[in-house]
């Protein structure tokens, strides 16, 4: 498929299979090729220098120009970037070696004009919270707990507003339209990892950046590390410039695996979501569980964002079993669920956020010690329900 206007009218499932593959027919190949070259031949000094300067500044590669060096540009990574941008409804996307590299580069790019103040809506991923609260990127941060607190927190030095919905790990939903209005003229970055572009496209609601840890649902099999940012062309240029300086570009093999993952992303997300809905409903009222947090449950979606902002509730949930000791016992007793960090893969995982992913977060931002975060995979839901039931009973 080469006609992007035609693709825009196709269902997302079709676009997920074909996006980023427009040049394959001309190359005479059917499967995605992997170019592992770290350096590329130059026809002459002058053209090589021009290409280097253009790419290092974040520009697009010119036709027939040398990519020069993998840190600047790679065709395998570029195809993946084109595909993700297509699914997010963005002009461009920029791929990174990890989700944190992607988030850090957006922060650095947004602060590039000297506005180094950032407003952050809690709750967010612990790694994001940590790098901001620690001052690692030389930014000044104001954390707020509600969307309506954002306008008062914004100053003339604010370069970025950061939010995550569904939130990690509580899966709390935030109205993106309200959020964009609260941010006003300040660029808004939304972590879209839990929802994926299958269920939510933040740029359609006024965000400037949709960020993913591609390690999660996009890769989907627990075997690739990566991050990616969807945005407009101008921001992509600025972010690529940061990436070229820091060397945080996604490796071609990681880009290949992530791009391949996009083809099955809708199928995986829809089945995992169906499984999660069944599991969440079964856990409600189960002895030993104080609360089930899942957007597919009515009390977890008071604004009715599922079906409007989000196409579905997703496959992430959290349960509160009361105490650290009980959470530890449940994690130890689970048999089908793997006790491990990360999420979004084909197999189901559970972990204790307060001790792991949110361990570096400030005390006021840590989830309750009785909370377990659960990522639902592709196993049969009856088996997952039975496993959690026996683990909770054992605790």
Summarize the structure in words.
The chain has 395 residues and is α/β, with parallel strands linked by helices. The chain has 14 helices and twelve strands. The protein has helices at 4-7, 12-18, 24-27, 45-56, 75-88, 99-110, 126-133, 150-153, 176-183, 196-199, 233-246, 252-283, 324-333, 381-394, and strands at residues 92-96, 117-121, 140-144, 158-164, 188-191, 209-213, 227-231, 291-293, 316-320, 338-339, 349-351, 371-375. Keywords: Aminotransferase, Pyridoxal phosphate, Transferase. Belongs to the trans-sulfuration enzymes family. It holds the Pfam family Cys_Met_Meta_PP.
- Strand residues, percent: 5-15%
**Number of E-state strands:** 12
How widely separated are the two ends?
Answer: 54 Å
Using only C-alpha atoms, the radius of gyration works out to 21 Å
Regarding quaternary structure, how should these chains be classified?
single chain
What does the average pLDDT come to?
Answer: 95
What sort of overall outline do the alpha carbons produce when their principal axes are compared? globular
Arrangement of strands in the largest sheet? 1-7-6-5-4-2-3
Order of helices and strands: HHHHHEHEHEHEHEHEEHHEEHEEEH
What's the total helix number? 14
Biggest β-sheet description = 7 strands, mixed
- Structure class: alpha/beta
Low-confidence stretches: none
Helix content: 25-40%
